[in-house]
């Protein structure tokens, strides 16, 4: 049997994890000196409630090798193979932790994939891995290779609603954050090829939606894998973004989800985003 395991930064809901038969290993979140296991000790809704009140930075910590080994070992011991997808190595050492755990367990039976992305971008890859597993026509190694091949085609864009968290994390001066908020400036972020990059700025929600749609239309999306929309605690704004995209996505499958701590700890409440795969080449 083939088992699929991910770290919790994939931000799949508990219902979808169960439906796809995917297991997750949680990262940890530090708030006001207390440690929480992602989606076990604290939900995304509670995270953003606490974040809206906190004046100090909220930080996250990678999954360590022992935690991955504890997830891998029972499956390997009963003769299963494991495909493990992790947040991109450019953002976290979690991938290295999973590789170390695979070596401690049985690296011939545990296949670790660096997604090069995270959150709802990684979730697109996990859905594809589950689809390949469920056909029954692929080995674990073939599934891992297939995901490695399409991972560089993932594009993830996000819109930061408020500059407060960027200021608290030291990524923006207090004066710049205040001016930006007064002007309604919303930074646009992009994840591609394993890197987080600034993608520009927009004025207000309408400007942000137009910018996201422009990127989508310019990059020739491959919608055979669907398109994913996600939000921190801004479901209405995410819904408005979906409606802006709807005339351009035909009958493609639309996935919706929640943005978790891996992104939210740096960007704060109100973030929305969209992810898709671009065409080959």
What percentage of residues falls in helices of 4 or more residues?
A: 40-55%
Structural class: alpha/beta
Count of helical stretches: 11
What is the C-alpha radius of gyration, as a whole number of Å?
Answer: 19 Å
Share of residues in strands: 25-35%
Mean pLDDT metric: 88
- Could you state the order of secondary-structure elements as H and E? EHEEEHEHEHEHHEHHEEHEEHEHE
Q: Low-confidence parts lasting 5 or more residues at pLDDT below 50?
A: 166-183
What does the main sheet amount to?
7 strands, mixed
Give a verbal description of the structure.
By secondary structure, the chain is α/β, with parallel strands linked by helices. It is 42% helix and 26% strand. It has eleven helices and 14 strands. It has helices at residues 14-20, 44-53, 65-77, 94-105, 119-135, 140-150, 164-168, 174-182, 204-218, 235-245, 261-267; strands at residues 2-7, 22-25, 28-31, 34-37, 59-61, 81-86, 110-114, 154-159, 185-192, 195-203, 221-222, 227-231, 254-258, 272-278. The strands form three sheets. Strands 8, 9, 10, 11, 12, 13 and 14 form a seven-stranded mixed beta sheet that branches. Strands 2-1-6-7 form a four-stranded parallel beta sheet, with helices on both faces. A three-stranded antiparallel beta sheet has the order 4-3-5, with helices on one face. A hairpin with a 2-residue loop joins strand 3 and strand 4 (34-37). The two termini are 33 Å apart. The model is unreliable at 166-183 (pLDDT under 50).
